[in-house]
Automatic annotation (TrEMBL):
Keyword set includes DNA damage: yes
Protein name: ATP-dependent DNA helicase RecG
Organism of derivation: Prauserella salsuginis
Organism ancestry: Bacteria, Bacillati, Actinomycetota, Actinomycetes, Pseudonocardiales
Keywords: ATP-binding, DNA damage, DNA recombination, DNA repair, DNA-binding, Helicase, Hydrolase, Isomerase, Nucleotide-binding
EC number: 5.6.2.4
All copies of domain Helicase ATP-binding, residue ranges: 280-455
GO molecular function terms attached to this record: DNA helicase activity; hydrolase activity
Protein family per UniProt: Belongs to the helicase family. RecG subfamily.
Pfam families cross-referenced by the UniProt entry: DEAD, Helicase_C, RecG_dom3_C, RecG_wedge
InterPro entries per the UniProt record, alphabetical: ATP-dep_DNA_helicase_RecG (IPR004609), DEAD/DEAH_box_helicase_dom (IPR011545), Helicase_ATP-bd (IPR014001), Helicase_C-like (IPR001650), NA-bd_OB-fold (IPR012340), P-loop_NTPase (IPR027417), RecG/Mfd (IPR047112), RecG_dom3_C (IPR045562)
Length: 718
């Protein structure tokens, strides 16, 4: 018999086990049985072709519509072109030198076709795909047992192993599998109406009805949700005991003076969030709060008021930005907002006043030494910088608050270093800010140990931004028109951005069958000699010296540069109200939320903004769906949901980015809010009564299975 811990080589044989390991990273019976079907097909129901992605290894259930042969151009032989349909859309399969397959690939037959998705003449294509056919009129002719079932599992596959090969391996394992121990207490299963784990694992792979499939999915989703919520409940429990510097609000300090001088009224959201932050800072336990809000919604004011409350308590605050460009801009912005309240030690300083100090890695030795002294002595009430701010050799007199801007740009190690910066063994309060809206279920799960706040008001005084997809492959003349639009805007005295995914002085990396991404340093001379000839073009990217980047941004802000060709260093924080148009090259290489962030750089003044999403991706791919969604709405919260749907959740418990092997196999952070909320409540109750899960060995085992040593270290630091 077979157990979950057995190696696949001993159960399936060396050849199949090697293919599963090499292609799908599956090594044990547990790995294979947790490799759930991606979807389920029913006889007669064909796979939607719309939404396939170029470069992905896809398995589609489709019907053959037609076949034809044509000669190959560069060598002898013929190409057999098979047109597949899902009933509404078509794609082709190309078999090179395999015209003999025409006898079995007859119009009207259906089957599974698996291969790498490519494009030929702007149409989707599978080249030399593997396939399994079945005859709708005679189930007994099928070569795969699962095809005779009403419900056909379709597994995530890869080059080297097909969905139906995975299905055969799963069937072979299930036929010899011992009953699987259930980690959930029976009382918990009964209370929530959950089937046992052994039954769920068998039914998820071999359901005989929709009811069986639904009950299996519900149980396995519950296990994922509960495992994660138990982990976060344990983290919250341990953090409650950490000491933090209490910084209660006072009535006659710098914070009150700043509020009196504000030239505008705080929004209701800013006041509400500000009160919550102020209450957190007054306690002797670390604040861990996530503040999200659209670009321009006023997060910086909320953060500055929190920093001033800390300064009133005689302590320091630090602000971390993802890039040196943004760090420098934050420092300038804070000084401007504070005015004479930010000029401590200078002539004309207010009483009370503080000092804002910038500290980055590329400063000169003299500048760095001076900034380090200001941080270490306490002369600087606010220290702004990049990750260089939390290196071991940087010390603070009494750091009580760390504000982290766009925290998804920072690694776990940097966030860990922040927590060791408090004085007298205390942990600083932490305020995490993001302009990327986060769905509630994501915040509840990914940021399970953070309190969350949102500024939802749309930026006041902002002009509308129109967004248009420029499909170069289908309509090459549209790109010429895009450059004309930029020229027209500059002719009206306005400015433009052109954003590229790569700098150009680095190797492009493995691009597969696609050309390398467009690079700033390659595009600039083409524009200077071509469609933007005569315009003043500036260059901005992350590898420039800090003084060069600052000089370019100052020149652009002053109107001395017409077009700024840049990488995503302009994504956050850059504010040039005169910029009205942005062209994003190879837009498909950016995420939905990133595209939304980028286009927020235009339309910041009195004139409307225009964002052009330039792409060569063919229509009908999931990428074009994604770009069309960005084109259709400027609602960041809606786009964040779409972004999550398209990218999947990724490994939310590890350092890996979305799109990699995920700890979440079935649970959807968007669709399963009820499951997550119920699991969260149970986890809090269980951990509250038994923090180490000593009395619940099954639950402790569930947590241990989710958290390997690498993830445990990650969680400890994050």
């Amino acid at each position: 018999m077979t157990t979950m811990a057995d190696r696949l080589s001993g159960v399936l044989g060396a050849k199949t086990a090697k293919a599963l390991a090499a292609s799908l990273d599956l090594h044990t019976v547990a790995d294979l049985l947790r490799h759930y079907p991606r979807r389920y097909a029913r006889r007669g129901e064909l796979t939607d072709i719309v939404g396939l992605e170029l470069g992905e290894y896809a398995t589609v259930l489709a019907r053959i519509e037609s076949t034809k042969r044509r000669p190959m151009k560069n060598r002898r032989g013929q190409i057999l072109e098979v047109v597949l349909t899902d009933g509404s859309r078509r794609m082709s399969c190309a078999f090179f030198g395999q015209e003999w397959r025409e006898k079995e690939l007859r119009p009207g037959r259906s089957g599974l076709f698996a291969g790498k998705v490519s494009a030929f003449r702007s149409n989707l294509q599978l080249s030399n795909p593997e396939y399994e056919l079945f005859d709708d009129d005679d189930d007994s002719s099928s070569t795969v047992d699962s095809f005779v079932k009403q419900i056909i599992p379709v597994y995530p596959a890869a080059a080297g192993i097909t969905s139906w090969a995975v299905s055969r391996a799963v069937r072979q394992v299930l036929d010899t599998l011992d009953p699987v121990d259930d980690p959930l207490p029976e009382v918990l299963c009964a209370e929530h109406g959950l089937t046992d784990l052994d039954t769920a694992l068998r039914r998820i792979h071999r359901p005989e009805s929709q009811e069986e499939l639904d009950s299996a999915r519900e149980r396995l989703k519950w296990d994922e949700a509960l495992s994660i919520q138990l982990i976060f409940a344990q983290r919250r429990q341990s953090e409650v005991s950490d000491p933090a510097p209490a910084c209660p609000r006072i009535d006659d300090g710098i914070a009150a003076a700043f509020d009196e001088r504000l030239p505008f009224e705080l929004t209701e959201g800013q006041r509400e969030v500000g009160e919550a932050v102020a209450a957190d800072l007054a306690t002797a336990h670390p604040m861990n709060r996530l503040l999200q809000g659209e670009v321009g919604s006023g997060k910086t004011i909320v953060a500055l008021r929190a920093m001033l409350q800390v300064i009133d308590a005689g302590r320091q605050a630090a602000m971390l930005a993802p890039t040196e460009v943004l760090a420098a801009q934050h420092a300038r912005s804070l000084r401007e907002l504070l005015g004479d309240l930010g000029k401590a030690g200078e002539l004309g300083a207010a009483d009370p006043a503080t000092k804002v100090t910038l500290l980055t890695g590329s400063m000169s030795a003299k500048e760095r030494k001076h900034a380090l002294l200001e941080a270490a002595s306490g002369e600087a009430g606010i220290v702004v910088g990049t990750h260089a701010l939390i290196q071991d050799h940087v010390t603070f007199a009494d750091l009580a608050l760390a504000v982290v801007d766009e925290q998804h740009r920072f690694g776990v190690e940097q966030r860990d270093a922040l927590r060791t910066r408090g004085a007298d063994g205390t942990s600083p309060h932490v305020l995490v800010m993001t302009a990327t809206p986060i769905p509630r279920t994501v915040a509840m799960t990914v940021y399970g140990d953070l309190e969350t706040s949102a500024l939802r008001q749309l930026p006041s005084g902002r002009s509308p931004i129109a967004t248009t997809v420029v499909p170069v492959a289908e309509k090459p003349s549209w790109l010429d028109r895009a450059w004309q639009r930029i020229t027209e805007e500059v002719g009206k005295g306005r400015q433009a951005y052109v954003v590229c995914p790569r700098i150009g002085d680095e190797p492009p990396g493995d691009t597969g069958d696609r050309r390398p991404p467009i690079a700033v340093l390659d595009l600039v001379p083409m524009l200077e000699q071509g469609p933007l000839h005569g315009l003043r073009i500036g260059v901005l990217h992350g590898r420039q010296p800090t003084e060069d980047k600052d000089a370019v941004m100052r020149a652009f802000a002053a109107g001395e540069v017409d077009v700024l060709v840049a990488t995503t260093v302009v994504e956050v924080g850059v504010n040039v109200p005169n910029a009205t148009v942005m062209a994003i090259m190879d837009a498909e290489r950016f995420g939905v939320s990133q595209l939304h962030q980028l286009r927020g750089r235009v339309g910041r003044g009195s004139e409307p903004g225009l964002c052009l999403l330039v792409t060569e991706m063919p229509d009908g791919t999931s990428t074009r769906q994604r770009l069309a969604a960005v084109e259709s709405t400027t609602d960041g919260f809606e786009l964040s949901k779409l972004d999550l749907e398209l990218r999947r959740e990724g490994d939310i418990l590890g350092a890996a980015q979305s799109g990699t092997k995920s700890a979440l196999k079935l649970l959807s952070l968007l669709d399963d809010e009820d499951v997550i909320a119920r699991a969260r409540t149970v986890a809090q109750q269980v951990v509250g009564a038994d923090p180490e899960l000593a009395g619940s060995p099954g639950l402790a085992r569930m947590v241990a299975e989710v958290i390997d040593s690498e993830r445990a270290e990650y969680l400890e630091k994050s």
